[in-house]
Design a protein that fits this description.
There is one protein chain. The protein is flat, with a radius of gyration of 29 Å. It is an alpha/beta fold. Helices cover 46% and strands 13% of the residues. α6 crosses α7, α6 packs across α8 and α17 runs antiparallel to α18. A hairpin with a 2-residue loop joins β12 and β13. The chain has 19 helices and 14 strands. Strands 6-5-4-10-11 form a 5-stranded parallel sheet, sandwiched between helices.
């Protein structure tokens, strides 16, 4: 609809067209400021607006076109509203789909495979998945990727923890180190390892490396199940950090050639201060082991070699300090770091009945994503996570999601959808039975509701452009509010305007369902 209006205006203005909302609702649906165009034509903006507005008088798409000040205001006609409603009824969940040429590599979650996913990981997972789903709906060619941190000390520590836990279960002598992973999941892994490898296996510390790999693979399966339970779209790629280290020598040579590194105190340092980092960073320790940053450098080298138009990383907010150093490495390797966009997801404060949500006994010291999904369901968790910007702190009480009133946004939106379904079920009709009804002589309230609903594609575009999926959930909440208000003030069944209102409600219901589907949220038809 918006694009159609832009295309019409372009017949008369050979320049970029920016549609705005009029200052007052009664002025119309769209407004175009003409100051820039008037200046190009060396004309007074108000006179130019009056002159130009007459060019649109014969278009069926407009009920009226009016010049006010230096603006041209457009009121859409019933015919274009009817045309767009028909599109929704025809395209169903494909409404708003498009095709884009831009290719994007989206990496998210990438939680260390040393334990199950906690609630912070879940926020990043749902945020990333929403961006993926919205982007793909809009036609962007997005490849999703999970970076598996399966190299380094944390994997060995996992193996040591399982090894010692198994020895403890077997009543062998155990001396726990200062650092180790704890929680019921470690004991579960240890019990399984005893069955897989046998008791004697845990009398030889030389097995720890093999055990570390086995435990990592087991934890990856747990993470994959957590991802599935969150209704996250299956990843296209799983990239192993350990395998990427085969490229370390090549990367190091490139960094040396770019004069990007130097040696000091027996360590190898990256000159990241040359690209606005607060200090240079160690990439190789004095014992010859690469640092965590080295793994990130290799990974981004591998990413950029794959030649995507854009790269998006979603990290936890605690990784903010890594941005400058990673971008510095990308520049030193000869790539454009502006192609890399790093989004941060803040942690979550979870309550239950006004009290802090209990830590999981199975996890030890954090809240498991799987526990919360079991408590409130994936759909409710996805929705509530997507009601705020990801880089803002989020606190919510899971008990609030059991409320059946407007304070619970999940219920509120689902009730709007179910309410419309109930009307159609009572009349023994389907949404698609309204296709042949022509929308004419629309009343103000009818037109306002329909116009707002038809704005979904533009909310999706803005949401993806700004990486803010909460714009879509807010749109659904606002649309539901308008629907409830309309229903409470306007009779549908048995009214002389029944057919017209049924078509409008069918359109609204399909748009609510489409928006929810895009976010990975399934709505119930009955409540």
């Amino acid at each position: 609809m918006k694009q159609k209006v832009i295309d019409i205006i372009k017949n008369h203005i050979d320049d970029e067209i920016i549609l705005q909302k009029p200052k007052k609702e009664e002025f119309g649906h769209f407004a175009v400021p003409v100051f820039k165009y008037a200046k190009q034509e060396k004309k007074n903006p108000m006179e130019y607006a009056k002159e130009l507005s007459s060019s649109f008088e014969n278009y069926d798409e407009f009920e009226s076109v009016e010049a006010i000040g230096g603006f041209i205001n457009f009121k859409l006609s019933d015919s274009i509203m009817n045309e767009m409603a028909n599109r929704v009824l025809e395209e169903k969940e494909n409404f708003g789909k498009a095709e884009k040429e831009e290719t994007i590599l989206l990496e998210y979650i990438s939680a260390n495979p040393t334990g199950p996913m906690h609630i912070g990981h879940a926020r990043g997972a749902i945020y990333g998945d929403a961006i993926l789903r919205i982007g793909r709906h809009l036609g962007y060619k997005i490849t999703s990727e999970y970076y598996v941190n399966d190299a380094g000390n944390q994997i060995r520590l996992l193996g040591v923890s399982v090894y010692l836990s198994a020895r403890e279960i077997l009543n062998y002598n155990v001396e726990w180190p200062e650092e180790f992973y704890k929680g019921e999941y470690i004991k579960e892994l240890a019990q399984k390892a005893i069955k897989v490898f046998g008791k004697d296996y845990f009398n030889d510390e030389n097995h720890i490396e093999e055990l570390s790999t086995w435990a990592k693979d087991e934890m990856l399966e747990v993470i994959k199940q957590d991802i599935k339970n969150l209704k996250v779209t299956p990843f296209d790629n799983w990239v192993s950090e350990k395998k990427l280290y085969d490229e370390w020598d090549e990367v190091l040579k490139k960094l040396k050639k770019a004069n990007a590194i130097y040696e000091k105190d027996g360590k190898v340092w990256l000159k990241s201060t040359e690209y606005k980092d607060e200090k240079d960073r160690v990439v190789v320790r004095d014992d010859g082991r690469p640092t965590y940053l080295a793994g990130d450098i290799i990974y981004h080298y591998d990413k950029f070699k794959r030649n995507f138009d854009k790269y998006i990383n979603i990290w936890g907010a605690d990784h903010h300090g890594y941005i400058a150093r990673v971008k510095a490495a990308i520049e030193f390797l000869g790539y454009d770091s502006k192609k890399l966009e790093i989004l941060l997801a803040q942690m979550v404060a979870l309550l239950k009945g006004g009290e802090p949500y209990k830590m999981s006994k199975r996890a030890g010291n954090f809240i498991l994503a799987s526990d919360v999904v079991e408590d409130i369901g994936a759909d409710a968790l996805r929705f509530i996570f997507l009601t705020k910007k990801a880089d803002n702190a989020l606190e919510f009480d899971v008990d609030d999601l059991n409320k059946t009133d407007s304070s619970n946004p999940v219920f509120y939106v689902n009730y709007a959808y179910a309410r419309i379904n109930s009307i159609f079920n009572n009349l023994n009709k389907t949404f698609y039975d309204t296709k042949d009804i022509k929308l004419t002589n629309l009343e103000k309230a009818e037109k306002e509701l329909l116009f707002f609903a038809l704005g979904l594609p533009y909310e999706l575009e803005d949401s993806f452009k700004h990486r803010e999926p909460h714009r879509v959930t807010n749109f659904l909440i606002n649309l539901s509010s308008k629907l409830h208000s309309f229903y409470n003030s306007n009779k549908v069944s048995g009214d002389e305007r029944e057919e017209i209102r049924l078509k409008i409600l069918a359109t609204v219901a399909l748009i609510i369902k489409t928006g929810a589907n895009i976010l990975g949220i399934e709505l119930k038809e009955k409540m």
